[in-house]
Write the structure tokens for this entry.
Amino acid sequence: MKIQAPKGTKDVLPEESYIWQYVESKFRQICKLYGYQEVRFPTFEYTELFQRGVGETTDIVQKEMYTFLDKGGRSITLRPEGTASVARLFIEHGFASRPMPQRLYYIISAFRYENTQGGRYREFHQFGIENFGSKSPVTDAEIISLSYNFFVSLGLDNIVVNINSIGCPVCRKDYVKNLKEYFLGYYDKLCPTCKQRLDKNPMRILDCKEDNCKLIAQDAPKPIEYLCDECKTHFEALKGYLDAAGVCYRVDPYIVRGLDYYTKTVFEIVDVVLDKELAICGGGRYDNLIEQIGGSSTPGIGFAIGVERLIMLLSQKGLIPQKPQVPQVFVATLGDLATKKAFEIASTLRFEGISTVIEELSRSLKSQMKYADKLGCDFSVIIGDDEIEKGVCKLRNMKTSSEEVVRIESLAQYIKSKI
Ligand code: HAM
């Protein structure tokens, strides 16, 4: 039986890898512009980090994690997201003593055992941002403006950021009490997991993917109706700053997000990808996360963008740039002496930044030209004994098939002037 890539994973072939490089470089650019610096961290963590960080009652922890015991009997989990790991990194490396706020970004793979219909993968990739140490709504606006301007820089100029506030532990008490009462009225219709959630964390029912629970959740009380004064003021200030930053946003009282660490601001950017409404970016404030996983109280806020979904959206909208031509030049050789000369020529061209390959299979000149044509090269350099003796080469323009004789020492400059 042929071995295939596991369900829910994706190989990236050369036809597509340049797009990944393109979006990554755009993301790095915007992070730099907003003063964010990269962190890298392990693909797996101790399971406890996600249980305590993401939350025991979330779908991610209950149903979607890739968890196993390693040979030393430790429970290990492939990261289902990046925030808990960056918070762990923040504590472990004493970031609390660095100047605040700390602005960090990451580009990671993440793993969730999910149904693999359109836009959902089991291994997927995220561009993420985390800001630690600021409680101010200025930071919420900066973060949202960063994600908004990232999408705009890719040509996605019609996006709208949906924002909401889910309050803090103070206002949540009253909210959760009312939510519990509401769901108790529908107890028999809830799925078994939500019946458990009702006792432990009724807010998670709002995020359940079962049809019946989704239907019941539609008329449930909304967190924004229960905000305390501090949370209300924070949200109002955020909206003012977003207006000032020129971010196009909408208040969506139904956003609750599927992770337990959020407080106050939450936001999502949603678009239609493969005929389905899918979130391409999700984030929010998490002022208690660092404390929850053992650090000293430090506010934080961040977001993550799904890279697969972003690329699907860009290609749907015709916003993918043309693939750069690689290689640009093919060096065709006739005989062993020419092969030796080809190394010299290729190395000079590469030194000048021209992407160059040489013939490696000793084929006939006709086959070599066919190959160069298939590679899409702009030029072929042809060398044989005659040319070597005279210090020249033939330069073939692969698009027009015209040939000219060029001195080897001026070849690089000449090609550079033509491409
Ligand atoms: P999240 O909403 O779970 O948030 O994921 C962020 C984004 O990752 C989603 O909007 C989506 O584009 C993408 N994504 C999630 N699951 C999948 C999947 N199975 N297949 C493809 N793409 C997926 C977080 O992960 C939080 N850590 C974001 C955050 C950072 N909040 C604060 N800081």
Observations:
- The chain has a mean pLDDT of 96.
- The chain has two domains: 14-168+228-316, 329-418.
- The chain has 15 helices and 16 strands.
